[in-house]
Amino acid sequence: MAALKIKKGSSKHSAYNLRPNFSDVQETHTLAVLVDNEPGVLARVIGLFSGRGYNIESLTVAEVDHLGHQSRITIVTKGTPQVIEQIKAQLGRIVPVHEVHDLTVDGPSVERELALFKVTGTGEKRVEALRLADIFRANAVDSTLDSFVFEVTGAPEKIDAFADLMRPLGLVEVARTGVAALSRGAE
Predict the structure, then answer these.
(1) Distance between CA 127 and CA 121 in Å, rounded?
(2) pTM (2 decimals)?
(3) By CB count within 10 A, which of 62, 76, 141, 161 is most buried?
(4) Angle between helices 124-135 and 156-166 (to 10 degrees)
């Protein structure tokens, strides 16, 4: 009688391999959440993330309907597909939340961010900072004899690229607004 040999650690043929095939790949998602504009709502949304150990990479909040007293929270977060689905489901259960949209999967969207960069330097570094700012369509919103404050608007990747180029030229401070995003099209 031949015995069936299963290689140790091989779960391909095991009856005990009950774990579904979940992806461990981390994905970045942009969520748009429409909420009542009332005290404590943002704290509840943020509490959902912190209480479960989820990270928020970007957070933008503003009132979008003054008469309806509603605000839009745009959250950029990272997680496995299962974690993202769990976040969306849990957000939808919070009482003052009206809508949750995953702009990453809903179709094409437009994402923009505003950033201010303080760059110090003189001589060639100053000239190079101005040249790069022109290429990135950055506006110099403040200038002294040894520094500039540049304003850059664009996709987060553009903001990151500008920061990377300004570091060796004397970047000393950055302020970012966080991502504002809308889905494209009529809906």
Answers:
(1) 9
(2) 0.79
(3) 76
(4) 170
